[in-house]
Amino acid sequence: MKILFIESYPQVVFGQQRTMLRLLNEAEDAGHDCVVMCTAEGEYTKLLRESGYKVLVCEYPKALASYGGAIYRYKGWARFKCYYQGLMYVLSTFKRIRELKVDVMYCNDMRGLLTSGVAARMLGVPVVIWDKLDKPHGWFDWLQLPLVTRNIVICYAVASKYPRWQKSLFNHKIERVFEGVDFSTFDRYQSLRNDLPADSDSIYMAIVGTITRRKGHHRVFDALPKVQAEIPNLHLLVIGEVSGNSEDDEYKDDLKLKSNERVHYLGFRNDVGDLMKSIDILLVPSLNEGTPLVINEAMAASVPVVGSRAGGIPEVVVDGETGYLFDGDDTQQLAKCIIELSKDCQLRQKMGTEGRRRAELKFNRSVQMKRVVEILEGAKK
């Protein structure tokens, strides 16, 4: 079977892109012919080519190319221009997809579905999406379930943005498949604790991911004064980078990463697995979220997680067993969770052990990816 994979954000290599790369590996191992269509040149297109995959670049026009959710907030002339350029893009990709003669299309995000996915459906090609974000896209969410052949959600919280009547009518299209960890690879990672900025006997907590308001870094910074006053040897690692969006640049500047000597900005890293084995607590303070891969990776590394009650995080983190959950902007509650874990090494170990057990049982990458490939195969039938 020939599968066309669509990636709308090839400028970066974050969780979404890494997940699709793992899916590509699984699909090729199953004997399928995989082609990737990206909307720009970037770090991800480079990585795909280095990994031996066939890559086509079909560039988005300017109005469609902005990173993140700003595109869904266009108004007036900007919205009209976006719609017009989107229509022209659909027509141009229609020709490319027809020439490729693919059997099924996999869209890695909503924007890919609303552009290349529309072109594919015009050609009668089945379309599958793995929806990973619970943040609504406005009226665009009304198009998703009618458009796709199969709709995978990374957690049930993601499905909350679809209209209720559609969830009833198209329930047969929806299936939950969690993200997973490749334990055979993950268990080979090594701790970098001795190479981290503070002393090895320090307590390290970390935020891992794109530096953007949606990820909630500011919540942790609001809680820091209380936390650091009680735990003098506690250090925060900020692992990740901005997307290149000007809004994210401003957000990063507002965090004042370098104004606190116990906050260490590590930037984008390719050794996240090693870093997971180096920390004591993972923080996931997101405002909107599906189920971040980093949670699974922390659990695989036997590290407890402190996460917000957003999106699918409560579907993965068991409050009081594999970590703690806190409510939204309640930074006092967040601080209390961090302090309690920081003061009790045995509690961290107990929660970490339980997290590892849960990850092995529920979040095995090989099992999860095989299920997605099966769904792609079934969409063709």
Automatic annotation (TrEMBL):
- List the InterPro entries: Glyco_trans_1
Q: Main EC class of this protein?
A: transferase
Q: What is its EC number?
A: 2.4.-.-
CDD domains membership: GT4_PimA-like (cd03801)
Does the keyword Disulfide bond belong to this entry? no
Glycosyl transferase family domain location, by residue? 192-358
Among Gene3D superfamilies, the record links this protein to: Glycogen Phosphorylase B
Record's keyword terms, sorted = Glycosyltransferase, Transferase
One Pfam family linked to the record: Glycos_transf_1
Task: List where the protein spans the membrane.
Answer: none
**Superkingdom of source:** Bacteria
Q: Which GO terms describe its molecular function?
A: glycosyltransferase activity
Q: Which protein is depicted? A: Glycosyltransferase family 4 protein
Species in which this protein is naturally found: Rubritalea tangerina
